[in-house]
Structure formats: C-alpha cells, structure tokens
Predict the structure of Antibiotic biosynthesis monooxygenase.
Amino acid sequence: MLIRIVRLTLQPGRVADFLAIFRDSENQIRNMPGCRHLELWQDADASNIYCTHSHWDSAADLDAYRHSALFGQVWPATKALFAAPPLAFSVYPASVEPTTPSLPTT
C-alpha cells in the first residue's frame, strides 16, 4: 500500500472554492481503481492549509489517477487557488522488527 500526502496552502479568500472542488470530486477519486482511502485534513494552526491523505494499492494506481481525465480537471482548478507551491510525498508503512544488539566479543 502506498500512502500519499499532499499539503495545500490556499489563498485565504479561496478556501470555500477549494472545498467545493473537493466535495465535487472526492467520491470520484475514491472510486478510482486502487484508491482505498481518501480524507481531507485541515491544519490546526492555519485555516487556509489543507492536506489530502490517500491510500493506494500501488504507485501504478496513483500514477494512473494522476494521468486520468478526472485529475486533469481537478488539479488545474485546485492549483489556481494556491498561495504557495504544494508539498507532496508518498510513503509506505514501515515494518520494524525488533533486533538484538550485537554483544561485544572479548
């Protein structure tokens, strides 16, 4: 599973426009092949900063969405509302196994 986070800093007067775009497209995004989860977060300190948080079966599924007609409509409309460039990154859940420290040999 690939997790995608995109931080969006919006022009303060355009937040309502962004929320309308998100509301109009969120179910279509959730129904894209490979999309398992999508939610919108609002920054705790800055009301014009939002993050999208999505889970994808694979990087190929995310790329297919990013090359879709839907993305071609949603992203340019959203991008026009930015006050700063977006920050986007993808991560995989980490699996950390406990290890036994090496003992010094004497």
